[in-house]
Specification:
Its cofactor is [4Fe-4S] cluster; pyridoxal 5'-phosphate. With 343 residues, the chain is of the alpha/beta class. The chain has a ten-stranded mixed β-sheet with strand order 1-2-3-4-5-6-7-8-9-10. Strand 7, helix 13 and strand 8 form a beta-alpha-beta unit. The structure holds pyridoxal-5'-phosphate and iron/sulfur cluster.
């Protein structure tokens, strides 16, 4: 295995990761956006910093403040408006940690926050306030996390989430795979990641090498919100993942101004299928402070789903769900008027 701590031997994906735009002014300038956005972008960036990798940046339409890809990454003054009903830990993650970095909320599957780092910073993210520095599961070479997994034979599946697990080096990930394989009750590894979408070069021989040899079944749940996020490089990366026997699914978040439109959602399902990915979840926004301007109410969400059901084959219609603190699984959004998503 190549050790990539030497900067001269960094893999292309690591160079791209390091080359992400982290300055709101640079983002505004490089995309030719109006100066009037600058002051607010700087302020909101203080709360949750800008991060946009080059491959994602290249898909944003220059000069268009309303571009749906841009809206996911550009800090706006709307983030600082008062947001009643929106909190810093809307899904109860802090309470669900059994050991640092291990969230055991649902039966049979455990979610590891593998790292605090992401390749991109999505403004709507419910983890924007999460104290990762103390809480990620890889910090002690997975020791506490795997010790917990060993004590509970009901756990069948381990989900690596984040931050984004594919910002970790392959030797670290392969190391976890080895540790999991030693636990006979663990059958599946799942990766929740946006990296193959925003840095497709991450899907390289190093990653495919350990995935292809994985002794567990591997599912990868990608996170794609808009059909324009899937360019040819993403399609090729997905083809390689499938050749390594990885099952590909997509979860999207329903976001005002990004994908709250039946045409866009239908195009998203069709586009991800072209890349060999099946739609899995369409999440209602988690009610995290700073993201209120992305909220879509339940009535509209259900209306959009109704159109998708009429227009698409059933396997291209995602499950519309929300996360509720204390619920035994993601909660289907079923009826207008049910639950806190209605406003
Ligand atoms: C979303 C989530 C899961 C996975 O749920 P699935 O319905 O299996 O996709 C598992 N654990 C936690 C803590 C989660 O938030
Ligand atoms: S955890 Fe996912 S949604 Fe949140 S900032 Fe990272 S990549 Fe974006």
């Amino acid at each position: 295995m190549i050790h990539r701590t030497d900067p001269a031997r960094q893999a292309p994906w690591q160079v791209e990761l390091a080359a992400a735009i982290r300055d709101p002014e640079a983002l505004v300038r490089v995309l030719g956006l109006p100066d009037t956005l600058l002051a607010a972008a700087h302020r909101a960036h203080e709360h949750f910093p800008v991060r946009v990798p080059p491959a994602y940046l290249a898909r944003i339409r220059p000069g268009d403040p309303e571009d749906p890809l841009l809206r996911q990454v550009l800090p706006l003054d709307l983030e600082e408006a008062p947001q009643p009903g929106f909190s810093r830990d809307p899904v109860g993650d802090l309470a669900a940690q059994v050991v640092p970095g291990v969230l055991h909320k649902y039966e049979g599957r455990v979610l590891l926050t593998a790292t605090g780092a992401c390749a991109i910073h999505c403004r709507y993210c419910f983890r924007r306030h999460f104290p990762y520095a103390k809480a990620h599961a890889a910090r002690d070479h997975w020791a506490q996390a795997t010790a917990h997994l060993a004590t509970d034979p009901s756990i069948r599946e381990v989900i690596l989430s984040g931050g984004d697990p594919l910002t970790l080096h392959d030797d670290k990930l392969a190391g976890l795979m080895g540790a999991l394989h030693a636990l006979p009750h663990i059958k599946r590894l799942r990766l929740h990641t946006r990296v193959p979408v925003v840095i497709p070069s991450r899907v390289d021989d190093g990653l495919l090498g350990w995935l292809d040899e994985a002794p567990l079944a591997v599912a990868m749940v990608l996170h794609i919100n808009h059909p324009r996020e899937v360019d040819d490089a993403v399609v090729r990366a997905c083809e390689r993942l499938r050749a390594a026997r990885v099952t590909l699914l997509n979860q999207a978040v329903l976001l005002a101004g990004v994908n709250d439109d039946a045409e866009v959602l239908a195009a998203l399902s069709e586009r991800v299928f072209e890349a060999g990915i099946l739609p899995y979840y369409l999440h209602m926004l988690d009610r995290v402070e700073g993201a209120a301007h992305f909220a879509v109410d339940a009535a509209r969400a259900l209306g959009l789903l109704e159109i998708l059901r009429a227009r698409l084959p059933g396997y291209l219609v995602p499950r519309l769900v929300r996360e509720e603190t204390g619920a035994p699984a993601k909660v289907p959004v079923v009826a207008v008027g049910a639950g806190p998503g209605c406003r």
